[in-house]
């Protein structure tokens, strides 16, 4: 019984502390600018894996900036890779990306106005606003960002703002840029494991009461 209780609690703790997901969509072009984001934090080796997939339905939309909150920790960017279904070996693009604080980066005023507290910026080119969109994440591609974490990450990463450029789709007269915001969504496997953990705890509690 103790083993079952331990595994149940561990399942709940694992999901709450490591598995997070979010879907982002554009402010100006919500039907054409989207991306899926997942994060996985490993306290064992003090690392954070951030996975971003550009799922935009537009003909073109390059994700080249990401703003989020990393509370009470310092992140060091170790490695960035791109891949798609047609690429068997991920492309290493670490040198294309930089990490900085919100205060040290040329941020557009609007996202900071509505999302105070976001303190960490990933970007390509010169800053979060401009730069060369060709160095960003293209439609259909996935990027993995691996960080070294200095400190203990307790709060989840589920709030993001992304910067898209070179947005183009049928009906547009010229390419455009946009910001995208996040809506937290559960990971199906994580929800199942979380439910299993809660069910295990409830079952053990019922047995303790009846006995």
How would you describe this protein?
The chain has 211 residues and is of the alpha+beta class. 22% of the residues lie in helices and 39% in strands. It has 3 helices and 11 strands, in the order H-E-E-E-E-E-E-E-H-E-E-E-E-H. The chain has helices at residues 2-18, 109-114, 188-210, and strands at 19-26, 34-42, 47-54, 60-68, 74-83, 91-92, 97-101, 120-124, 142-150, 160-168, 176-184. The chain has an 11-stranded antiparallel beta sheet. It is globular, with a radius of gyration of 19 Å.
Outline the secondary-structure elements.
Layout: H1 2-18, E1 19-26, E2 34-42, E3 47-54, E4 60-68, E5 74-83, E6 91-92, E7 97-101, H2 109-114, E8 120-124, E9 142-150, E10 160-168, E11 176-184, H3 188-210
Antiparallel strand pairs: 1-2, 1-11, 2-3, 3-9, 4-8, 4-10, 5-6, 5-9, 7-8, 10-11
Helix pairs in contact: 1-3
Shape: globular
Unreliable residue runs:
1-17, 185-196
Give the integer mean of the pLDDT values: 78
What is the terminal separation in angstroms? 13 Å
Number of strands: 11
Beta-strand content bin: 35-45%
Over all CA atoms, what is the radius of gyration?
Answer: 19 Å
Order of strands, widest sheet: 6-5-9-3-2-1-11-10-4-8-7
Count of helical stretches: 3
Largest sheet: 11 strands, antiparallel
- Helix and strand content put the structural class at alpha+beta
Order of helices and strands: HEEEEEEEHEEEEH
Report a brief summary of the structure:
This protein is α+β, with helices and mostly antiparallel strands and 211 residues long. The protein has helices spanning 2-18, 109-114, 188-210; strands at 19-26, 34-42, 47-54, 60-68, 74-83, 91-92, 97-101, 120-124, 142-150, 160-168, 176-184.
